[in-house]
Amino acid sequence: MDASPLSAPLTLPCGAQLANRIGKSAMTEALADRLDRPTQAHENLYRRWSAGGLALQITGNVMVDRRYLERPGNVVVEDERDLAELTAWAKASQAGGSKVWMQISHPGRQCPINVARRPLSPSSEKLQMLGLFGRPREMTQDDIHDAIRRYAETARIAQKAGFDGVQIHGAHGYLISQFLSPKTNRRKDDWGGSLDNRARFLREVYAATRQAVGPDFPVAVKLNSADFQKGGFSLADCVQVAQSLEAAGIDLIEISGGTYEQMSFVTGTDEPQRESTRSREAYFLEYAREIRAAVATPIMVTGGFRSRDAMETALIEDGIDMIGLARPLCVHPDGAADLIAGRVEQIGVDEDQMTLGRGSLGLNTRNWLANLINTISRVEYFGWQMTRMSRNQEPVADGRANALSMLVWYLSRGTWLALRRKGK
């Protein structure tokens, strides 16, 4: 059997090398202790993934500001107080040969109300999700410069703790994504209006981060191909931003899409696509091809990949450099090694066939509330699997889950984590 293109190493612009073409994309773990520190659970989970043949692991959201979390249970890195715990996490993640990058992030307005009632955002546009998020306060100039400093400081500490790189989260509707989108950035100053101005925050975050870690340390960005919302960040915008990042020296761009209000990164895009594209699994491959035509920077595509054939085709025919896997690795942690060796043709579960309830809770219902429940439940099914692995248990890979039980698990766990944190 000829070697799979998935096994080929990749050298990044900074000179660092990844051993193969499969990386674990970020997923929120919600495993931090009440002081927002990484725990033994993080070490167990990432050591398990590292044993599975991945070239790269990207952590879930690590917050740069303790006041604002994507959810309770996030790790927060503001200073060096938790350096020992961070170092242990990095070493466990590298135990099987993987590189590990810390994803550094600020939620902006996507900060739940049980964490902060008045989060920060470029503008005061409120997230419309069942009252779970407060109306944000428009950031002042001091807020903006403080946030930029925080991203760079978190990256510096990640490097000191032994992480192999960092990824700046600029997608999925979080703070950088909010600056990029005209739907959420209504500013009239130098940080809003034109695309050049809306992208200024990301450029400044990258510049400060690069200065903090030096030229030889990988710095990547996760970027929306589009928000898939009317009046939001578009593919044309993405291409221009990618070109500016390439000129600045970014090492890798991971392509995704969507926000909390349009969760394409979970469910795929509803945008019309050619039949040849629909049969290719990956949610954002059509968009990534256009970005690839505009830049030479290594590109990673995440979302939808399940079969070895689709992954290899993306590498060979579409010019994609890295395959990003997330949910499939929650049920098949050895998936990278098994795909590269040809032991399996496909990993993950068929999410369209997941047992998430019947009737009003069915996946194809037109009821928007039921669809929201199913979206949350689908995500939390994989969060539950991560929690199992963090306890040194193997995942249950049959794809069976009840939507209501997963929703209850999500809400009760989130409430407990929030109360525990407030009582610290």
What is the strand tally? 14
**Total of helices:** 15
From the helix content, strand content and strand pairing, which structural class follows? alpha/beta
Total discrete domains = 2
Mean pLDDT score, rounded?
89
- State the low-pLDDT regions, or none: 264-279, 356-365
Identify the CATH architecture of the largest domain. Answer: Alpha-Beta Barrel
The rounded Rg comes to 20 Å
Principal-axis shape: globular
Topology of helices and strands:
Elements: E1 10-11, E2 17-18, E3 22-24, H1 40-50, E4 56-58, E5 62-63, E6 75-76, H2 83-93, E7 99-105, E8 120-121, E9 137-138, H3 141-161, E10 165-170, H4 175-180, H5 195-198, H6 200-213, E11 219-224, H7 235-248, E12 252-256, H8 264-267, H9 275-278, H10 285-294, E13 299-302, H11 308-317, E14 322-325, H12 327-331, H13 335-341, H14 368-390, H15 403-422
Parallel strand pairs: 3-4, 3-14, 4-7, 5-6, 5-7, 7-10, 8-9, 10-11, 11-12, 12-13, 13-14
Antiparallel strand pairs: 1-2
